[in-house]
Write a structure and sequence with these properties.
This protein is mainly β. It is built from no helices and eleven strands.
């Protein structure tokens, strides 16, 4: 059974940091490219981080570049999202996604999400 389970969300102050984790099971984790997405209330889901199946390349949209960092540990079947210098507009539910390199990520595996709230 395929599972992706996010954890690490919560309430954090503006300017603070948080690290999200996503533990995977039920598929060959190392073969999959991994992404983090987020969805704020009333907004569309947006991509915030990408890492290749080999882990050699990452990519981020401008809105989070230099603040967010994605990494993976294939030995633990886990992907991480380190988020620094958080802003109120980073408040959202964060989802991890696993897709094969040539697969549309929308057709890949999804977790159920973890809430991150940035507020004083």
């Amino acid at each position: 059974q395929v599972q992706l389970v996010e954890s690490g969300g919560g309430l954090v102050q503006p300017g603070g940091s948080v690290r999200l984790s996503c533990a995977a099971s039920g598929f060959t984790f190392s073969a999959y490219a991994l992404r983090w997405y987020r969805q704020a209330p009333g907004k569309a889901r947006e991509w915030v981080a990408f890492i290749t199946s080999a882990g050699g390349s990452t990519n981020y949209p401008y809105s989070v570049k230099d603040r967010f960092s994605i990494s993976r540990d294939d030995a633990k079947n886990t992907v991480y999202l380190q988020m620094n210098s958080l802003k109120r507009e980073d408040t959202a539910v964060y989802y991890c996604n696993a897709a094969l390199p040539n697969q549309d990520p929308r057709q890949g595996h999804w977790g159920r999400g973890t809430q991150v709230t940035v507020s004083s």
